[in-house]
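Tokens in:
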């Protein structure tokens, strides 16, 4: 395809997929999350503009073991959800959860969402384990979440509007999904750092440390390898019940389980016990 034809096709994909009829809410409804001075009531009203299913899953995430361990107690208002998760993260979750609902019943697209969500969860945990600042950990979390959103949107468009369009093949999706992601980031006024994190496909390092973009790619690649090896599962081998931070009632295993279950992705996570050796430990060749 010529450049102009490619741009026209991507324009059409964005027009068909990013609207109230498709997403179930108007993109403009999320503008309230761009206003740092928005009142409690204005933010609370957003809940009525998105589906009950999206609202429930965002509440589940905010009340999950990971977030609940940081700020004790359950939350009951949407304003509290936004305060706990952050405006950008709440907005990103609303967008991608709407796409998850559209993908229901389509194993290929749902698996892409599961990979993205797994990259988000693993990326933030890795950032915490590496001692990164909380703001950088949140950036990595958001980068993982949006790592394949362009691919999801293109595949959903093809499923609903262009099943026979031979132009939208695997090569087209791999080449232009990041370009579409860039448009989504701009359309919803999401942070510019998202594109700086997603455009590099390698592990980016600076003089003496791995960048947040590099850490995002590590998480994405680890998840991709697990999904490839274990038939679309993130497999966690739990050796000992490692606790999370100062809260000894919460383990890393429960963090993964709670996060995946919060968005209905429990079937994509497998927790296994330490594997037994098939042969005795190798002790070297015996000397004659």
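Residues out:
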């Amino acid at each position: 395809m010529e450049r102009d034809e490619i741009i026209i096709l991507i324009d059409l994909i964005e027009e068909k997929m990013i609207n109230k009829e498709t997403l179930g809410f108007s993109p403009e409804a999320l503008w309230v999350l761009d206003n740092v001075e928005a009142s409690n009531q204005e933010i609370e009203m957003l809940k009525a503009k998105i589906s009950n299913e999206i609202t429930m899953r965002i509440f589940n995430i905010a009340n999950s073991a990971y977030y609940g361990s940081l700020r004790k107690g359950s939350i009951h208002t949407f304003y509290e959800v936004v305060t706990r998760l952050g405006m950008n993260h709440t907005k990103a979750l609303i967008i991608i959860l709407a796409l998850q609902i559209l993908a229901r019943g389509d194993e290929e697209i749902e698996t892409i969402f599961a990979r993205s969500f797994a990259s988000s969860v693993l990326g933030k945990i890795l950032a915490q384990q590496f001692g990164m600042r909380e703001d950088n950990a949140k950036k990595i979390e958001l980068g993982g979440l949006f790592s394949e959103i362009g691919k999801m949107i293109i595949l959903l468009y093809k499923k609903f509007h262009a099943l026979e369009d031979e132009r939208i093949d695997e090569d087209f999706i791999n080449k232009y999904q990041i370009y579409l992601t860039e448009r989504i980031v701009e359309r919803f006024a999401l942070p510019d750092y998202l594109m700086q994190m997603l455009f590099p496909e390698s592990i980016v390092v600076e003089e003496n440390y791995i960048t947040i973009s590099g850490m995002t790619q590590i998480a994405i690649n680890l998840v991709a390898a697990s999904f490839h090896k274990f038939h679309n599962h993130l497999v966690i081998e739990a050796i000992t019940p490692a606790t999370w931070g100062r809260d000894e009632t919460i383990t890393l295993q429960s963090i993964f389980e709670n996060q995946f279950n919060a968005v209905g992705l429990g079937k994509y996570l497998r927790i296994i016990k330490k594997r037994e050796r098939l042969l005795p430990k190798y002790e070297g060749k015996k000397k004659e």
